[in-house]
Each structure stands twice: as C-alpha cells, then as structure tokens.
Specification:
145 residues; 2 domains; disordered N terminus; disordered C terminus; membrane
Length: 145
C-alpha cells in the first residue's frame, strides 16, 4: 500500500482499499456506487459472495420485467395511435360526405348544429384516451368553421 506525505492515510488522502480488519471501501462519489465492507475475521466470504450473486440475479429479473413491461406499453401506445389515425381519417371522410350532402341539399342550418357537436364529442373521446388535441392539432383546418 502506498502512503503519502500527508500523514500516511492512503494515497493522496483517500481511504485505503485494504486495512488490517479486512476489505474497506472508498467514499463513493456517485449514487450508483455500492459500498461494501467485508471483514474476513468475522464473516464467511463465501456467504457474502452467495448473497451478492443472489442480489445480482434478483436485479436481472427486475430489469427483465421492466423491459417486457416497457415493450408491452410501447406496443399498446402504437396501436392506440393507429386507432386514432384511422378514426381521424373516418371523421374526415364523413365530414366530407356530410358537407357534400349539405351543399347538394342547399341548407346550412344542419351544418351549424352538427359541427360543434361533433367537435365536442371528439374532444371528449380524446380526453378519455389521454391524447387531447391529437386529431385537432394534426389537422388545423378541421376546427376552422
């Protein structure tokens, strides 16, 4: 072990890796560091290693579960977006047909009642899904009545 000229307390003031009692650790700088102290005089190293292996196995299992849940949620969001895109296309086609039939019939009173109610129902449906404004923002001309 190297000693420094600042009192023999380790290399440049850092705590030593090994002491007379056994293994000791340095002061951790990051929150992701694990500090471990094993004293071979008072504990069995094999038990410590087995315990650490068990913890690593558990962490790997948790990471696998998190990964599978993230994949599931990503697929669900993709399906939801496709459903909303299809719904937007359907609403757009129906609005086109409705406008065409109103123009052919020559009456605009039905148009003034239908469009605000349709917009209100679309906003309500979007808020239930959690994507408020998705359809409206993707087609700015849709709300300009």
């Amino acid at each position: 072990m190297a000693s420094s000229s600042n009192g023999g307390g380790g290399y440049y003031g850092a705590a030593p890796y090994r002491s007379r009692e056994g293994l000791s650790t340095r002061q951790g700088t990051g929150s992701d560091e694990i500090q471990l102290r094993i004293d071979p005089m008072h504990a069995d190293l094999d038990d410590e290693i087995s315990g650490l292996r068990k913890q690593v196995r558990q962490l790997k299992n948790v990471a696998t579960e998190i990964e599978s849940e993230a994949k599931f949620q990503n697929e669900f969001i993709n399906q939801l977006q496709m459903t909303l895109i299809k719904a937007q296309a359907g609403v757009k086609n129906n609005m086109r047909k409705l406008n065409k039939s109103i123009i052919q019939s020559g009456s605009s009173s039905y148009l003034s009642i239908t469009k605000p109610e349709l917009a209100e129902k679309l906003v309500w449906a979007q808020s239930k899904v959690g994507l408020v404004g998705f359809i409206m923002s993707s087609n700015p001309g849709f709300v300009a009545w």
